[in-house]
Write a structure and sequence with these properties.
This protein is of the alpha/beta class. The chain is built from 8 helices and 10 strands. It has a single domain, classed as Vaccinia Virus protein VP39 (Rossmann fold). It has helices at about 45-50, 75-80, 95, 120, 150-160, 175-190, 230-235, 235-245; strands spanning about 15, 20-25, 30-35, 65, 85-90, 110-115, 130-135, 160-170, 190-195, 200-210. The protein has a 7-stranded mixed β-sheet, with helices on both faces. A 3-stranded antiparallel β-sheet has the order 1-2-3, with no helix packed on it.
């Protein structure tokens, strides 16, 4: 998949480091990912915790795909805390993949793989049908047109198992935000929920294949996936409460 990708076509990200954190940027105005040096698998940015909200609707996904590696926050969290899930991560920018070790992203193994390729091409002929498809594929200019067209979302639908969930991170204040959400709704029908971050510019769109999304009746410990400890689960509390309120 990567043979036609020219490294010179992509912006090289840069890293900002403090005593306690390491962050990935494409431009100084927009942080892409952040890592707590003391807890490298923790989810630092609020939007990443919201994206994990798919666990409210499927606490035991077997197959997860992700478009956009970034600093690997979501990939690392899923790898560590969902030990029964297999995950494929697609990243088009070779300069991002080159920082894999810098952000302590796991090596490929039987349940985790980073694929150098185009996410739009990946969903056209996916190697598996997925329970969850995470879309976080921003570049310097935002979400590329190839990852926000109606055709792309139709192919995301085809890449999911029945009942599978697309989770898309979008810029809430982007001029094409409403158009992008409308395309998702046109494809996924009644199975769409938009969750806007209260103090940020991000919105997370959850879209379920063939079924409506409704807030879970269970609460707290009963929803915690097998293999996830209480410390990790507690990171998600406030984000999950916000998702449930948004669904209602």
């Amino acid at each position: 998949m990567s043979s036609a990708i020219d490294p010179d076509d992509f912006v090289k990200p840069f890293i900002s480091e403090t005593l306690g954190s390491k962050s990935l940027y494409f431009s100084i105005s927009a942080i892409q990912s952040s890592m707590n040096l003391m807890q490298p698998d923790a989810l630092v940015l609020e939007y990443s915790r919201t994206m994990m909200g798919f666990l409210l609707f499927n606490p035991a996904p077997a197959r997860i795909a992700m478009i956009g590696l970034g600093g690997g926050s979501l990939a690392k969290f899923c790898y560590r805390h969902l030990p029964k899930a297999r995950m494929d991560v697609v990243e088009i920018n070779p300069h991002v993949i080159a920082l894999r070790d810098t952000f302590l992203i796991p090596k490929d193994d039987r349940r985790f793989k980073v694929i150098h390729g185009d996410g739009a091409q990946f969903v056209r002929k996916p190697p598996h049908l997925y329970d969850v498809l995470l879309l976080d594929g921003f570049d310097l200019r935002g979400l590329p047109a190839s990852l926000s067209s109606r055709r792309f979302f139709e192919e995301c639908l085809g890449a999911l198992q029945p009942g599978g969930i697309l989770v898309a991170n979008l810029h809430y204040k982007h001029p094409h935000f409403e158009t992008c959400v409308a395309r998702i709704r046109a494809v996924f029908k009644d199975g769409v929920q938009v969750v806007v971050e209260p103090d940020e510019d991000n919105a997370t769109v959850f879209a379920r294949k063939g079924a409506a999304l409704s807030p879970p009746e269970a609460k707290g410990r009963s929803l915690r996936p097998a293999g996830m400890n209480e410390v990790a689960w507690s990171q998600l509390d406030s984000a999950f409460a916000h998702i449930v309120r948004s669904c209602r």
